[in-house]
Amino acid sequence: MGTHRVRRLEEEIRSEVSRLLLFEAGDPRIRDVTVTRVTLTRDLGLARIYYESSNPDRRTMLQEGLEAATPFIRRNIASRLKLRLAPQIEFYYDETSEEVRKVEKLFSKL
After folding, report:
1. For residues 98 and 96, what is the distance between their CA atoms, to the nearest angstrom?
2. Could you tell me which of 18, 100, 27, 33 has the C-alpha nearest to residue 68?
C-alpha cells in the first residue's frame, strides 16, 4: 500500500470521525472531543485515533464514551468511505497540546 494512499485515508477517516462525533453521535460524554490525527497500520487493519478535549479532567469519561461509540463509528466509516473491511479502532488521548503548553510556560519563565 502506497504511503500517499495511507496518508489520504488517514485524513479521510479523521474528517469522517470528527463529523460523526459532532453531528451524529448522541452520547453526551463525547460532545467536546476534537479528533487531532489518525494513524493507520500498513495493512489498514488498525486505526489509532488521537483526540483531545477542552476539558482534560474528563479523560476517563471521554474514553468510555468513545469506546462505547466505536461500533457505530466503525460501521459508518466502512460504508461512507466504501471500504471492504473497516479497520479496528483504538482511541488515544493526544497529550501534544498539553506538552506544548508546559514547554511554553517554561520558556516564559526564562
Report:
1. 5
2. 27
pLDDT digits (tens, 9 = 90+) for 37-96: 999 998 999 999 999 988 878 888 999 999 999 999 999 999 999 988 899 999 999 987
pTM, to two decimals = 0.84
**In the CATH hierarchy, which fold is given to the domain comprising 3-109?**
GMP Synthetase; Chain A, domain 3 (3.30.300)
Q: Which residue has the cell 479521510?
A: 12
Q: Where are the domains of the chain?
A: 3-109
Residue for grid cell 503548553 = 101
How many Å apart are CA 35 and CA 15, to the nearest integer?
8
Residue 105's Cβ-count burial label (10 Å; 0-12, 13-18, 19+) is exposed
CB atoms closer than 10 angstroms to residue 17? 25
